[in-house]
Amino acid sequence: MSIFRLIPQNNANFLIEGDLTFSSLNKKTIPSFDFLKGPDEICLDLNKVTVADSAGLALLLEWIKQSKKYDTKLMFKNIPQQLLTLATLSGLDLNEYLADAKNETFSKL
To answer: In what order do the strands lie in the sheet with 41-52?
Structure first.
């Protein structure tokens, strides 16, 4: 099991590292949602996620929920195929939250 970490790259960009699974995520490992309060737009890069399951998808959905609460535009890039498959099987459409991979902007697809 790889430890979950939310690593700030700058004020508006964060790298997610480690496992996003039931065994790696709990109240102690999930950081505060305060990082969503700052900028108008935030991008979370999941490039360093090693394994993901439905708990990881639930975390993404909670981040989306909290970002709306703070009126922050939240985008994800490099979402692991495991999470995209789970989202599709669950009937969730994450397209609104995907960063444009070509130029890594916050624009909607």
So the answer is: 5-8, 13-20, 41-52, 73-77
Say if 60 falls within a structural domain: yes
**Number of domains the chain is built from:** 1
Alpha carbon of residue 68 to chain centroid: 14
User: Domain holding 65: CATH number?
Assistant: 3.30.750.24
92 within a domain of the structure (yes/no): yes
What pLDDT tens digit does each residue of the chain (109 aa) get? Answer: 688 899 999 989 999 999 999 888 877 667 678 888 878 999 999 999 999 999 999 999 999 999 999 999 999 999 999 999 999 999 888 888 887 644 444 333 2
Expressed as residue numbers, the domain containing 77 is 5-97
Is 33 inside a domain boundary?
yes
Rounded CA separation 49/51 (Å): 6
Contacts of 51 (CB under 8 A, 6+ apart): 2, 19, 20, 21, 82
Q: In the structure encoding, which two tokens stand for residue 4, read together? A: 């979950």
